[in-house]
Amino acid sequence: MRRRLAALASLSLILTATNAQAASNDPVGDLIGSVMTGNLPGAPVFNLKATLYHAGARGVGALDSLGCKVVAMRTVAVDKNVIPRRTVLFIKETVGVKMPDGKVHDGYWYASDVGGAIKGERIDLYTGHGSASMKPVKNLSLAKISAVKVGTFKGCPPA
């Protein structure tokens, strides 16, 4: 009787381990989970402190560090040692924010700029021309945001 109970206990442990292993190798489950959380399976997630910058501020020009025109509510300045330039980021916290053209933001940003004050786990979101351009984003909690790498781009970011 004890041998049978021990065998049943061992069998249940083996089945539990097999199910746990199968669950971690479930691409469909990972994809469904990613849709629910906003993260792509296996994509790097950066937990960052965000700040805002605009044209007209001291040191801010019309071109980013790649030599491309900065794009309001799309260009982001990064520490290139943390997030490489030419990275496409999805920032869930910015989804639904009103864009300068009246549309709502889809959460996609383009890492094409760097800044002297952007060091480590920080990110700087370009809002447009003048301090009034920051108004739609000021209500966001910028102390802690999550940016997910969703791809890369060549050339300049789309306008």
Helix/strand layout:
Elements (H helix, E strand, L loop, with lengths): L1 H23 L2 H11 L7 E11 L19 E4 L8 E5 L16 E6 L8 E8 L5 H4 L6 E8 L7
Parallel strand pairs: 1-5, 2-4
Antiparallel strand pairs: 1-6, 2-5, 3-4, 3-6
Q: Please report the total strand number as a whole number.
A: 6
State the helicity in percent bands.
10-25%
Name given to the CATH architecture of the largest domain: Beta Barrel
Report the sheet-strand fraction: 25-35%
Output the structural class. alpha/beta
- What name is given to the CATH topology of the largest domain? Barwin-like endoglucanases
Count of alpha and pi helical runs: 3
Distance between the amino and carboxyl termini: 74 Å
Give me the side-by-side strand order of the main sheet: 1-5-2-4-3-6
Give the C-level CATH assignment of the largest domain.
Mainly Beta
Shape: globular
Give the uncertain stretches in residue-range form. 4-24
